[in-house]
Amino acid sequence: MSVTVSDHDSKKNLKIISQPPTLRIIPPLNFCPVEKHLYRSGQPSIINQSFLQDLNLKTIIWLASEEPQEDFLDYCSSNNIDIEFVGMMNDYNYQSVNPWDALTEGTIKKALELILNKENHPLLVCCGMGRHRTGTVIGCLRRLQGWNLASVSEEYRRFTGARGGRILVELLIESFDLGLVEVNSEMIPEWLKN
Amino acid sequence: MNEYSEDPFQMDEDLKNDSGGDPSTKNSALLEDITPRYEDPTYHSQSIMYQDREEIRSKIAHIKLEERNAANNNTTEEDEEEVYDEDIDDKFDTEQYNEQLQAQNGNIPHSQGNRIEVKAGAEASPILDEGAELTPPENFAPVINTIYRSSFPQPVNFTFLKKLKLKSILCLIPEDYPLLHQKFLEEQGIKLFQLGMSGNKEPFVKISSELITDAIKIVIDPENQPILIHCNRGKHRTGCLVGVLRRLQKWSLTIIFDEYRKFAAPKERPMDQQFIELYDEREIVKFAKENEFLPLKWD
To answer: What range defines the domain where residue A132 resides?
Structure first.
């Protein structure tokens, strides 16, 4: 008997939802602007479409060892976004790399040279989670910008999640030979100049 | 009946059937039945003591509240102490870095081995200007277009800040801006907005949504950009502000919280996330639409 009473009560308290949930824009995981027209994130997919639309991307540097999903590839080709696959293959024996392998010097050099050409901008650098591979490339870029190593490390670790940064990645950033990077001085983005 | 009453799970139903009628009286009867009876005469005095303690506690809480209200804009003692501590640090550093800056300006090489090493590396790179070493403030990042966020900048960060070509700085802490900083702003022609607010400190101090609204009005005005938003650590107050900005961009809350936590780590505050979610954006959306500041643009 009392059950029916409470049942009745709960019906009284029912509220009518008058509005549909509003549209939410979903940026890719670990997304953050780096410089003007340069962004970093984890692996984007088709659910990020409405967000990516606003960025007007020209190029995506894909550092993940996994290939993008088919529908995302379609999205990129229909929007004339160039996906540069960097670091998916081992340069020496042409075998695919493991997701946990560190980037090679050649991969970092290639990625940096793409970033330093403003013709490729707006540009997104991404890997699986936007942590270590992306962090390596952005870290080396920061060194090239003249950031001190402590600030580079602080930024890298901000994006590495609960398990923290990897010492090997930081060693790689510290020891990367900036002299390897070849750039066309006319193509350097504005933010790298004075 | 006997069989049923032995089963503990059946007892309630049996009782209900017996009493029937009004559920409230039935419940109170039940409660009385199961309330332990204290034969011990000290029980009552104990409970009085307990009540007294409760009364004192609530009085103390009340006094604290009153103090806080009297101080109005000021933060709680705890917060104030913390802020002042950090401020003293700032001032101390200010002098130290002032000397460092002078040393640099006079082209006196710094004595630390590390610095020289980095400088040498920087000079080797083909693009760098003057081989100068850049130190961004902690927790620095672009938010959108030329809106930036960071912790309280130190004099050692000034070279870096110059490169951002800031038009204004929005400071979210109530304390006076350090003199050296003021001088830097004057030199660079940077406008300073100061909206002193206290962060979310459970349970009494809450971040003010009115102040956040005022802050957003400043930030999204293109007249003021490029703009740097900072508080003390660039975690909580700045985090709340950026969270609200992200809502104006219609980001999904999950990603907003993720970003908040990234910058607030390891001191994320659930209250801040709650603030971001519950903030009433109607006023600011109306303001932004009237001034055609929305949607926020990436370039």
So the answer is: 25-175
